[in-house]
Amino acid sequence: MATEILVPTLGESVSTATVARWLKKAGEAVKADEPLVELETDKVTVEVNAPAAGVIESIAADEGAEVEPGAVLGSIAAGGAAAAPARPQPQTSEPAPAPAAAAQPKVEPPRQPQGPVAVPGAAGHAPLPAAAKLMAERGVGAEQIGEGSAKDGRIAKGDVLDFLSRPAAAPAAAAAKPATQRALDEGEERVKMTRLRVTIARRLKEAQNTAAMLTTFNEVDMGAAMALRSEYRDVFEKRHGVRLGFMSFFVKACVAALKEFPAVNAEIEGDQVIYKHFVHMGIAVGGPNGLVVPVLRNADRMGFAEIEKTIGNFGKRARDGQLKLEELAGGSFTITNGGIYGSLMSTPILNPPQSGILGMHKIQERPMAIGGKVEIRPMMYIALSYDHRIVDGKEAVSFLVRVKESVEDPRRLMLDI
């Protein structure tokens, strides 16, 4: 009896995935829970493990195919024997042609009209099933979208959503886009964007198009935090098994400021504001395929050690591509630290639908006027980008001042003042 290999639940707001890579071939023996295939979603790469031990009997979804939760990827035959390996078939909106003699030309079956999806001359951009359905519903033609991000340039559902999210003037511009790509010059290389990178690009552009985004700046004297960290570094690591870094100071400082200025922790939905009586803190982390933002859930209930352990774990698993979808959803505020790459100052971009993001930067010694004297102090520029539709300038500046005060005097965090 064969066991089906199914697409797992993909997580909040993720309805489709692309088959990125099969790790096993039809006819190969596998163990239970052994990784079989990688699926690429808009947010992260997901491994699907073998539901049982046996032999790969068939592969139903080829690499590049778009699949939905619950769809059959293939099957595993119990025991050591399997049927003849099935040739992988790409998922298409058309039935597979019947076998024909080698000398006979391939005869295409008659196609049924599909409204605007069936576009003459756009065969190279044939949409995947989920994309074709959405295009028919929205009256979008393949020539408007152009080359897709799926295998062989096919149009995926994410490409359609990306097209629909563009400003109203986009359809005319897309229609005018030449069907052929320009010839590459010497030394150039064309590489298709990953699904994650396409999604990052789309979401960042959505943030610019939707939010009334502003950025306010301040600077923090890191002397007190550095002294506290140096004094208790060894005992902290011995007690908790993790190093004391600066991220926990800023997480705690932001939690305190968000409680005082709740609009920065809220979001807009239509003509309503949703206030959140919790802090789910997103921490921007660089992964192999781009930036991801895992979430510290209920960061307002965490201590320094738990924050440091969780962030360290996020960083390691982001580099290994092992973050789970549910860990990337539901954030209410985000912190990004460009300082680890040497950035001295930047304007971070919002992570929709959030209304605020804090940018940390490099600690650099600078001459500062203190008490009428010039002293060399370890300083960090910090930036708050915020949605001016919901956060007033006074709130944004006061929020950043509160973060500054908390980090410059960490005792405030201990006493909750």
Automatic annotation (TrEMBL):
Record-level Gene Ontology MF annotations: dihydrolipoyllysine-residue succinyltransferase activity
Biological process, per Gene Ontology: L-lysine catabolic process to acetyl-CoA via saccharopine; tricarboxylic acid cycle
Listed pathway(s): Amino-acid degradation; L-lysine degradation via saccharopine pathway; glutaryl-CoA from L-lysine: step 6/6
Cofactor: (R)-lipoate
Keywords: Acyltransferase, Lipoyl, Transferase, Tricarboxylic acid cycle
Catalysed reactions, as listed in the record: N(6)-[(R)-dihydrolipoyl]-L-lysyl-[protein] + succinyl-CoA = N(6)-[(R)-S(8)-succinyldihydrolipoyl]-L-lysyl-[protein] + CoA
A Pfam family assignment: 2-oxoacid_dh
EC number: 2.3.1.61
EC supergroup of this enzyme: transferase
NCBIfam families for this protein: PRK05704.1, sucB
Family membership: Belongs to the 2-oxoacid dehydrogenase family.
Chain's role: E2 component of the 2-oxoglutarate dehydrogenase (OGDH) complex which catalyzes the second step in the conversion of 2-oxoglutarate to succinyl-CoA and CO(2).
The name this protein goes by in its record: Dihydrolipoyllysine-residue succinyltransferase
